[in-house]
Amino acid sequence: MRLFVTGTDTAVGKTCISALLVRALRAAGIDAVGMKPITCGGREDALELHAASDAAIELNDVNPVWLRAPLAPYAASLVEGRAIDLDLVRRTFARVSAAHPALIVEGVGGWRVPITREFAVSDLAAELGLPVAVVVANRLGALNHAVLTVESIRARGLICAGLILNHAHRPTESPDLAAATNRTVLEDILEVPILHEIAYGQTTLVL
């Protein structure tokens, strides 16, 4: 399995789900590793993917570009006064991809987040040439965000491998009608598979 994991927004659970995918592949005996080529703010996401990969690659290969400002990459690069080294990302991806048959690459923020003034997460995904899985926070508003993201993926001529619905927030006693119906509606209107539906706090995944 080789996937580029994007999200309908930031903080929808991309890292958690990418790590679940890597662990599930490794549990099945497949040499899988995770990458987050660009990280902004803390490096916790990269550390989680590094651990999920059983440290099979170096942390700096999991995450070759680390900006400390907790902003979109382009904004963080402006604040820090340094350019984002896209060539380092490309070289690291090529080396890791050649060495490991299964690779989960997590984007940064949402699908159209700018990495530089003229290069977005969507452009990085297009360069890497991987099928794209979209993590959707299963809540009110998910339909609009998911439809726009899938339409943009298709407009780039890329393959949308499917959606991963994530129950990212602790359930309440009140029924969440949006969360209960989002899956059915998205399957109907987008005609892409729901690859997984992740429960709140889920720690394992069966492929």
Nutshell version of this structure?
The chain is α/β, with parallel strands linked by helices and 207 residues long. The chain is 41% helix and 21% strand. It is globular and about 45 Å long.
pLDDT under 50 segments (min length 5)? none
Percent of residues in helices comes to 40-55%
Number of separate domains = 1
Radius of gyration: 16 Å
The percent range for strand residues is 15-25%
**Cα-to-Cα separation, first versus last residue:** 10 Å
What structural category arises from helix and sheet content? alpha/beta
Structure commentary:
With about 210 residues, this protein is an alpha/beta fold. It has a single domain (about 1-200), classed as Rossmann fold, CATH 3.40.50. It is built from eight helices and ten strands. The chain has helices at about 15-25, 45-50, 60, 75-80, 85-100, 120-130, 140-155, 175-190, and strands at about 1-5, 30-35, 40, 65, 100-105, 115, 120, 130-135, 160-165, 195-200. The protein has a six-stranded parallel beta sheet with strand order 2-5-1-8-9-10, with helices on both faces. A two-stranded parallel sheet has the order 3-4. Helix 7 links the parallel strand 8 and strand 9.
Task: Describe this protein with a few key phrases.
207 residues; alpha/beta; Rossmann fold; two-stranded parallel ribbon
Topology (SSEs and partners):
Elements: E1 2-7, H1 14-27, E2 32-35, E3 38-40, H2 44-52, H3 59-62, E4 65-67, H4 73-80, H5 86-99, E5 102-106, E6 114-116, E7 119-120, H6 121-128, E8 132-137, H7 142-155, E9 160-166, H8 177-190, E10 194-198
